Amino acid sequence: MIGARRNLRSLSSAARAVKAAKTDVPRVSLSLAARGVVSCARIESSASPVGATARNYSTKSVPLTAETYASRVQRNEIYKKLDDKDVDYFRAVLSDNNGIITDADDLLFYNEDWMRKYRGQSQLVLKPKTTEQVSQILAYCNENKLAVVPQGGNTGLVGGSNPVFDEIVLSLSLLNKIRSFDPVSGILKCDAGVILETADQFLAENGYIFPLDLGAKGSCHVGGNVATNAGGLRLLRYGSLHGSVLGLEAVLPDGTIYNSMDSLRKDNTGYDLKQLFIGSEGTLGVITGVSVLCPSRPQAFNVAFLAVSSYEAVQEVFVGARKELSEILSAFEFMDGKSQILTARHLKLDHPIESGDYPFYILIETSGSNKEHDDEKLETFLGNAMEEGLVDDGIIAQDDAQVKSLWSWRESIPEASTIGGGVYKYDVSLPLADLYGLVEAANDKLQKAGIVGLDDETKPVVEAIGYGHVGDGNLHLNVCVREYSKEIEKVLEPFVYEWIQSKKGSISAEHGLGFQKKNYIGYSKSDIEIKMIKDIKNHYDPNGIMNPYKYV
Amino acid sequence: MSTKLRILVPVKRVIDFAIKPRINKTQTGVETKGVKFSINPFCDIALEESIRIREADKDKVENIHAVSIGPTKAQDVLRTALAKGADNSTLVDVGDEEVEPLSVAKLLQKVVEKDNSNLVILGKQAIDDDANQTGQMLAGLLNWPQATNASKVEIDGDNVTVTREIDGGADTLRAKLPLIITTDLRLNEPRYASLPNIMKAKKKPLEKLKASDLGIELVKRIETLKVVEPPVRNAGIKVETVDELVSKLKELKAI
After folding, report:
1. Contact across the interface for A401 and B17, Cβ inside 8 Å
2. Which CATH number is A417-511's, of 3.40.1160.10, 3.10.290.10, 3.40.50.410, 3.30.70.2740?
3. Does the model's ipTM exceed the 0.85 cut?
C-alpha cells in the first residue's frame, strides 16, 4: 500500500503538486522565493517577454515605508536610538546567539512584509524562548524608551508587524511549544509562536480542530492570530476568537506578566481582560501564551464549487444553504470571475468548471459527523438549486485531492492577486446587499481614471477583484497592480473608505488597522470610541513603546 | 464497419490516497474506521480513459459498464463513476471480506462473458494491496491480449495501440480487440463530477449481485500474518566542521 501511495505522490501530475504547494498561501517562504527570483531575473531578463515584465516589478527592492509615507509619518524622537550597550543587555538576557539578529541581510526578512509593500529599518531582531525573557526585554525597553514591534509569522496584510523606522522586532518564532491539551474539554494551551497548521495537525491527531483556518496557516502564528483577531475561512461555523479564546498569557510594556491561561468557559468575575488583547495588534503588550477551546474535528467534509450568473444569485444560494444545510454548513465563500481568471494564470491550470466563464463562483464546504447524511443534504440542496436555475453549473469533490484542489481556487486568490507586481487590499465588512457594490464602484473609478487594463502592460492597475466570506458579510477588495504608486492610491483613498462609511460598513473586517489603516479608523469608530481606545493604550503603555505609528 | 466498443471498467473503493493509512491495534491490517474512502486513483484514470474514448468518437462506444467488487458502501464509487460518465454499474457485494486478485479476476471474467465486453480498462493496481495482478490474471483467464501500464491509448477500428513508459523510453504495443488495458498514472487526469451529471447519475442503473450469483466461490489462498509500519528513519545529525564530517563519514565507512 505504501508503495503505490508514494508513487502517486512523487509521480503526481503537475496539478496535484501545485495543489499541495498552494494550500498555505502567503507562506513566509514566498518572500524568500521572490528574492530568489531577483538574481535569476537579472541574468535571464530576455527569457520571456511577458514573464519578464511581470518580474521587473517584483524584483524591485521594496521602498522604505519611512520614505514612501514621509508626508504622513516621522520618527518620534522620544524613542531612544539603539546602541551597543542595549544589544549587550539583550544578548545577556537571551544567553544564546541564535536569538539575536543584527546582520542586514538577515534583518530584511523581518523588516519587509510578504506583499513587498512595507519595509522598516530595524537593526535588531530578538527571538526570546521564554515568557520571562519577553518580560525582561520589555521592561528594559520601557525603561530606556526603546520602541518594539512584536512579530508572529509576518503574514499580516496591513503592515502591522513590520517596523516603520528603527523599532526592535520581537519575533515570537522560538516561543513555539504546545503546552497542554485536554482531550475531554478540548482546551489547547500553547505558546504564541506555534504555527497555526502545526497546532491544527497536533489537534487532528487527537480528533479535534483549531477553530480558525486561513490561507496563511502554514506560516502564521497562533499568537499573531489572536493579537489581530484573525477571522478566516471557518468563522461562519466556529465564531470569532473573541469567543473561542479562553485565556491568555501576555507581557505588559513594563514587563508585568498577565496570566489568565487557566480561565474557565464560564467565569463572570470582573472585566474580561483578555478581550483587550484580542485584536490589539501588539499595542498593549505581547501575547506569549494562548488557551483556546477547540471543537471536535468533523469526520466528513464535502466541497462544492458552483457557478452563478449574478451577485443576487450568490445571495439567494446563501440563504438556501443556511436553511437547507444548516448545521453542516462550514464555509460559504464567493469569488468574482476576474479573480478566477487571475488564479488560473497563477496556478497555470484550467478552471475546474469547464462549461464557460461565469461572473461569480461559490465554494460551499460542509462538515459533519456522517458522510451519507451530509452527501444527501448537499446533493438535494444543490439539485434543487440547479433545477430552479439559481446555479448555472457546479462540481462536487469526489475525493480529498479534489477537496484540496477546489479550495486552492479560493485560497490562492491572495497570491494570484500579486502576480502583476503588487496589490492594494481592502478587507471590509458591508451589509450583504451592498457587498459587491464596492468592487463595481472601485472598478468604475479606476476605469474613469484610465489606469486599469487586465492585459495592457502600460496601465499601472491590472484589475480590481472581489471575493470573500459571504457568511460573515466580509468582502476582500483586491486592487491588483503592476506597481505601487501614489497615483493609484489617490484614486482609491479615501474613496473606498467613504463608500464603506456611506453604507455603514467597517473599513477592516479581519485584517486589522496596522499601518495601512491607522488614519482611517474614524470611518468606522466614533470619537468617543477612539478616545476610550487611546485612554486604555495610554494607561498600559504610557511611554508608547508598543508598536508605534500604527493602530490609532 | 468496425466493432462497437463495450467497455468494462472495474473500480475499487480504497482509503483515500490523501490519507496516511494507520495500522490497526491488532496488526492484522489497516485501520478503516472513520477513514475517508474514495475511488482508487488508477481506476479513476481507467474510467476517465474510457470516457475520453467515447468523447473522441461518439459512435464508437456502445456502452461503458462500471463494476465494483467490495462492501455495500462501494456503491459510492459506482455513483461517482456514473456521474463521471459510465452508463450502468454493478456492485458485487462481498461484504467486508478482502478478495484476492485471482477471485476478482474470476468474477470479472464472468461479467465480461455476461456483458459480451470487448475491452476491459482497469487500473494497473489498487493503492491498498498494491497487488498489480488482476489485469494480468483476467487476460490469462479470458485468453485475451493485454497491454499493461498504459500511458497512451489510441484506437483505430479494431486495432488498439498502447504506449507504455519504460526505463529510458517508450514501448509501443499493438493488438486487436478484445483486449485488456491496465492504466498508469500519466495516462490522463480525471475530471470532476459535475452537478448536472451527479443528478443524472441517480437515475442510472446500479445492479447488485453476490459472488454466488456469478457462480464464483471466494477462496482465500493467502493468510496475512502481520502488518507493521515501515521502520522510522532516524533523524540526521549536525556537524560543526568539515573535519568532523569527514571523520563521521569514515566512521560509517561511507568514504
Report:
1. yes
2. 3.30.70.2740
3. no
